[in-house]
Structure formats: structure tokens, C-alpha cells
Amino acid sequence: MKLSNSIPMTALAIALLAGAQATAATISAGDVVTVGDRYGNVFTPTPVAGDSNGLYRNLTIRINGTTNVNVSAGLFVLDFREGTSDWEQFETFCLQPNVYLQPFSNPYQAISLGAGAYATASAAIGELYGRFRDAVVNDRTAAAFQVALWELAYDSGRNLGAGNFQLTYLGSDVAATANSWLAAIDGTGPRANLLALVSNPNLADRQDLLVEDVPEPGTLGLLVAGVLAGVGLRRRASVAHG
After folding, report:
1. Is 60 inside a domain boundary?
2. 176: pLDDT confidence band, cut at 50, 70 and 90?
3. Domain membership of residue 180 as a residue range
């Protein structure tokens, strides 16, 4: 690749460094955290224009082919802290369609999505996140992402009209979007590194939460150093070869 056709490497390094500073509060594998809803609003605090209720929709789903449940499906904004540290907000989706979000069953431990109960579905969920998480921009796409996630995590198939997890109204725009995303997952797309926040598995009201495994600032710092080293090598090579 020619440097003239690429992003300036110094600009990339600055962007990475800024990212390192912006990710000071992250959840990593092995962390034990307390989860809460300090502001009393578990959905996006500032709704998108036209979505007055925030990034979610109220839907009816069917569990195990028999039980209809009214749910709010979308993007949750909660709070976490380790020990007595300051509270920090984080974004999350629920992994279990048949369990209420509250009460929170603290403490939660962060584990790799592929290391626990979601190991079989972890690759597909990682690709769903890698392909479509950035498309969550309104109530429809937030609800569709949550529905697709539930289908992958709770069911062995990818049919919203059959199996252990079903969406009762398949003619909705949420169903259409979720189905299109599920159909696109073929093992070739980008795959995010994800964690599950899990609590006591013996609790019937336990709700597992999905979060992204973001590199710690120290890891990003090493990446920046590598980029800068690469810049130096490429500049020397350009001089040597004229």
C-alpha cells in the first residue's frame, strides 16, 4: 500500500492514543463488578430524535413454544463499579429472553463469551456484534439487535417463527431487520471479542449481560508504540529506495 493512499500514520497513532485515554473505564475478563441502575433509566438516557422512549421497543415473544412474554427489547445503559471505585456507565444487551433484568444479582463476574454457557453460539454472536452493532441507531435497530441476539443465544436455529425463542409478530420492521442480520451471519464477517457478565448460576432470576471486551489502555499504548515504530521503518525504507 502506498502511503499517499492511506491514512497518515501519525494521525492514526494520535487517534489510537485518544482511544486509549477514552477507554479508561472498561470491563475485562475476570473482573468482579457490582451492576446497578443509578439514574433509574435502564435505556439510553438521551433518546434519538423520533424515538421518544429511547432505543427500545415493547414486543411480545414466545418462550419454549408455549409462554407469551411482554418484553422491552433494546439497548440498556447501566452502571458498574469494582469494589468501592467510582460508578461508570456501560452499554449492554441481555442474553436471556426469559429473565427480568432486575433485580440485579450482584456481584457479576466477567467471563469470555466462549468460555461459558454461550460457547456454542459465541462465534455467531461475535459476528452479529462485529457486523451490526454500529447499525444500532434508533428504536427499530436496537430492538432488532436484541431480538437477533436472543435468537442466537437461546435457540439452536435462526428462525424467529419457530423453536425455543419466537417473535410473535413476524410482519414487523423489527422482525425484518433481525431476520436480515441473522441471514447475513455466515462465518466470514468481522467478529467482536465479547464478555458475558454472569452472577450466581443457582439464582432463578439471574440475567446475563453482554459487553464488549475493549483493550485496556496499556494494551492500546503498546499498539500505538508499534504503529510509531512502523512509521519509522517505512520512512527509512522510503529514503533507502528513493
Report:
1. yes
2. very high
3. 25-236
